[in-house]
Amino acid sequence: MAIAIYPGTFDPITNGHTDLIHRAAKLFDKVIVAVAASTGKKPRFTLSERVDLANKVLAGVDKVEIIEFDTLLVEFTRQCKADVILRGLRAVSDFEYEFQLAGMNRRLAPEVETMFLTPAEQFAYISSSLVKEIAALGGNVSEFVHPLVVEALNGSQSA
């Protein structure tokens, strides 16, 4: 059984993320969306809110499980008995950092492969950071995220 881990903070989960998850679900027997605690990034949503949003946005997508983690990614990958770490590449600017991560993960866990997927063209420019910034300034993010995420972003502005 081929299991892929798709890690990230998903703060918030975007249409770019969901595009990759839907396509990965066609390639693997199981896709674990690994929501990282990442307190160092000072996420806008709590870990439980990010997991909850991912569960709601991905409800009904076969072969997908959402799990939070706060350990070293390769250790989490081993715990889940996963074969692959899945990463998204939006642009050439992502490549150097992702290549460095893949090399380090290979060194720490040579039995785990890293695979890259590129998003569909219409999602290539979407990032959680940009979505949060646009929403914080009152902009419309409805074409970048699921309606439940729009609602959460709008609700968290007044909090």
TrEMBL record:
SUPFAM superfamilies: Nucleotidylyl transferase. One of its GO terms (cellular component) is cytoplasm. GO terms for biological process: coenzyme A biosynthetic process. The keyword Iron-sulfur does not apply. InterPro entries: Cyt_trans-like (IPR004821), PPAT (IPR001980), Rossmann-like_a/b/a_fold (IPR014729). GO terms for molecular function: ATP binding; pantetheine-phosphate adenylyltransferase activity. Keywords: ATP-binding, Coenzyme A biosynthesis, Cytoplasm, Magnesium, Nucleotide-binding, Nucleotidyltransferase, Transferase. It is found in: Cytoplasm. Substrate binds at residues 9, 41, 73, 87. Residues 5-133 form the Cytidyltransferase-like domain. It catalyses: (R)-4'-phosphopantetheine + ATP + H(+) = 3'-dephospho-CoA + diphosphate. The record marks 17 as: Transition state stabilizer. It is an enzyme of class 2 (transferase). Its cofactor is Mg(2+). ATP binds at residues 9-10, 17, 88-90, 98, 123-129. Its EC number is 2.7.7.3. Reversibly transfers an adenylyl group from ATP to 4'-phosphopantetheine, yielding dephospho-CoA (dPCoA) and pyrophosphate. NCBIfam families: coaD_prev_kdtB, cyt_tran_rel. Belongs to the bacterial CoaD family. Homohexamer. This is Phosphopantetheine adenylyltransferase. It comes from Sedimenticola selenatireducens. The lineage of its organism: Bacteria, Pseudomonadati, Pseudomonadota, Gammaproteobacteria, Chromatiales.
